[in-house]
Amino acid sequence: MSASARMLQLLSLLQTHRYWPGGELARRLEVSERTLRRDVDRLRELGYPVHAVRGVAGGYQLQAGAAMPPLLLDDEEAVAIVVGLRAAAGGMVEGIDDTSVRALSKIVQVMPPRLRRRVDALRSYTVPAVFGSGGPTLDAGLLATLAQACRDDERLRFGYRTREGDEAERTVEPHTMVTVGRRWYLVAWDLTRHDWRSFRVDRMTDATATGVRFRPRELPGGDAAEYVKSGLRSAPQRHHVSVLVHADAESVRGRVGRWGEVTDTGDGSCRLTMEADDLGWPMFALMGIGAEFDVEEPAELVEEVDRVAGLFGRAVRRTS
Amino acid sequence: MSASARMLQLLSLLQTHRYWPGGELARRLEVSERTLRRDVDRLRELGYPVHAVRGVAGGYQLQAGAAMPPLLLDDEEAVAIVVGLRAAAGGMVEGIDDTSVRALSKIVQVMPPRLRRRVDALRSYTVPAVFGSGGPTLDAGLLATLAQACRDDERLRFGYRTREGDEAERTVEPHTMVTVGRRWYLVAWDLTRHDWRSFRVDRMTDATATGVRFRPRELPGGDAAEYVKSGLRSAPQRHHVSVLVHADAESVRGRVGRWGEVTDTGDGSCRLTMEADDLGWPMFALMGIGAEFDVEEPAELVEEVDRVAGLFGRAVRRTS
DNA sequence: CCCTTGCGGTCAGGTCCTGTCCGCAATCCG
DNA sequence: CGGATTGCGGACAGGACCTGACCGCAAGGG
Fold first, then answer.
1. What pairing do the DSSP bridges indicate for beta strands B261-264 and B293-297?
2. pLDDT at position A38
3. Is A130's pLDDT higher than 50?
4. Which residue of A213, A296, B61, B67 is 20 to 30 Å from A167, comparing CA positions?
5. Is B156 near chain A, with CB under 8 Å?
6. What residues does each domain of chain A span?
7. In the CATH hierarchy, which fold is given to the domain comprising A239-319?
8. Sign (positive/negative) of CA torsion A82, A84, A90, A94?
9. Cβ contacts, strand C, under 7 angstroms
10. Under CATH, which architecture does the A3-62 domain have?
11. A49 CA, D24 C1': separation in Å?
12. Cα torsion angle, A217, A223, A225, A230, sign
């Protein structure tokens, strides 16, 4: 085995078990212990902090360093990571959507097909994003495809359903992916319209990279996120939710986590405010809190609460 | 730069962009193009399928191969992966809990401290597992610590709250982690009791590996999962939920995903059954479905539905 | 105090890595 | 069809570097 291959294997071994006695490592790598020590030294020179313990039951150990070492994953771990990232990218986790998608595309690109199949088999086991209530049910695989095409400057072809419901095929030069609220958009140069467009990802179907690369154009204004937002003058339907909850702020905060702002109003009550483009979340939150509350706004939320109250009330009456 | 370091860097470059012209790569690695070709060859010999395209706008590309290549992640990607895995390990994703934890512990072990801090800063942004309603709110960092101790045969010390509410310090030799239902257990040899025990992870606090390694004992019976289950004769409180929903099976299935079994009852209705040890999930599901329904069992669910109906009804009355 | 295990210097031999030079092949474009 | 571009790989010479062997030393654990 060549020296470089041995380095990779050594890194891999150091990642699977915490402690390795030097002799054991040398035997596995089929080199003398002296050479092993030299390999370890080389790793250290490359910045991977390999810690050593002397004496009986001593050994080597890979510690946290200044930079991420190359991760050597086995099949199952890779699958777990992809499944987790899909959940995160799908909007279950706040704050890292786009990074998840980037990581996802990187991993998926080099993932053996048999592992991709295993991931797909697990696809529908994730928690539905808004538990049914009309969440766009994004396909994380689609997101990964788009992100990859953006990164690699590859043309994309996909079907697109316009607001009016028309279905048409588009070919574009993708530029950036943007997430606004809980929605994904692709900013791209439309090759048939000869203009910049932003596409809602949940309206796209069957996206495939054509394999044709292109020289990136400059987006007028430069800021893709701004471009998308400016195109959304047709009111993004965001609701400002404000609810007075009759429970102490601390416990409410514990239950809604970061999904809403909780401010103490002093008298053992608190005010819960959220931004949502879908009333499903506030509804879930109100149910999860389980305390008495008054809806301050919006009126639509009152209607929604009323609807569920009626629904549940009828169910109880029918059962008893 | 040494040859091995260059190989790693080459792998890294190939993972960040899809296509690389040979000249560009050679320049970045500061070697001649001939040497670059040799490096690429070496990678191929190691099993990484590097595809090359000739002619104008040709270049190199890392494809999916038979095995996962070492992943070279930048900081943000690493953080995204850990956050995703935490969500998955916390029970948001069905079917890969334990693998997620393994992957998590592997990554966290080698992750630079500054990245760990970033992950912690994002911790509470994940969706609360059951949106408040008493989900054990597992600490994924704790899970990772335990998994690592199991893997590396390191003794653990932690605080444990018994069913009776007593708090005591334990020192154990961890054996395996088991997940039953939505709960995590650690099977370990208790060094003070001198016997095997299974510990509920959500009752543990401040677990730390002591650094002392031990020779693994053999678990009587061998099957850790079986051991935990046998210890759970004290009825795990599981509810069999069965609800008749007045909506067509297809749409209901779309809304609950894999979180419940949906069987068509023929007359435009369907029966939704779930197993749950917490009634929060079925409640969320019923709200998410938004159709009329009759609760068949358990009686506790009817009470719960009644409670929320009352809660919501009062809120509406107070507002109008 | 002894044993185990890691550390690192030195040396000789030889592997293998590198840059140069070359002709060839595949692909794209006009 | 021809030219330009880009990847492919053989041959070769010089030298960098890798390896194993041998050594004495240092650090833990019992």
1. unpaired
2. 92
3. no
4. A213
5. no
6. 3-62, 76-128+135-231, 239-319
7. Alpha-Beta Plaits (3.30.70)
8. negative
9. A 2-3, 21-23, 33-34, 37, 40-41, 52-60; B 3, 6, 30-32, 34-35, 38-39, 42, 53-58
10. Orthogonal Bundle (1.10)
11. 27
12. negative
pLDDT of residue A134: 41
Measured CA to CA, the distance from residue A294 to residue B179 in angstroms comes to: 39
Q: What Cα–Cα distance (Å) separates residue B216 from each residue in A64, B150, B194, B241?
A: 26, 9, 14, 41
Query: Which pLDDT band, with edges at 50, 70 and 90, does A87 fall under?
Result: confident
Distance CA B272, CA B264 (A): 9
Kindly report the average pLDDT of chain B as a whole number: 80
Could you read off the pLDDT of A36-83 as tens digits, one per residue?
A: 999 999 888 888 888 888 877 778 888 888 888 888 888 989 988 988
Q: Quick one: pLDDT at residue A123?
A: 59
The DSSP symbol for B258 reads: G
pLDDT at B95: 58
- pLDDT, residue B133, reads 39
Q: A20, A50, A75, A312: best mutation site toward chain B, by most B Cβ within 10 Å?
A: A312
Least confident stretch, A100-114, B22-36, B263-277:
B263-277
Amino acid at A9: Q
Rounded Cα distance, B278 and A191, in Å: 52
The pLDDT of residue A132 is: 38
Closest alpha carbon to C1' of D10, residue: B34
Considering only A64-68, B103-107, B174-178, which range has the smallest mean pLDDT?
A64-68
Instruction: Name the most confidently modeled range: A107-111, A219-223, B254-258.
Output: A107-111
Chain C: positions less than 7 Å from a protein CB are 3-10, 16-22, 25-29
> How far is residue A260's CA from residue A254's CA, in Å, rounded to a whole number?
11
- Positions of strand D less than 7 angstroms from a protein CB: 4-11, 17-23, 26-30
Tell me whether the omega of the peptide bond preceding residue B298 falls within 30 degrees of 0, making it cis.
yes
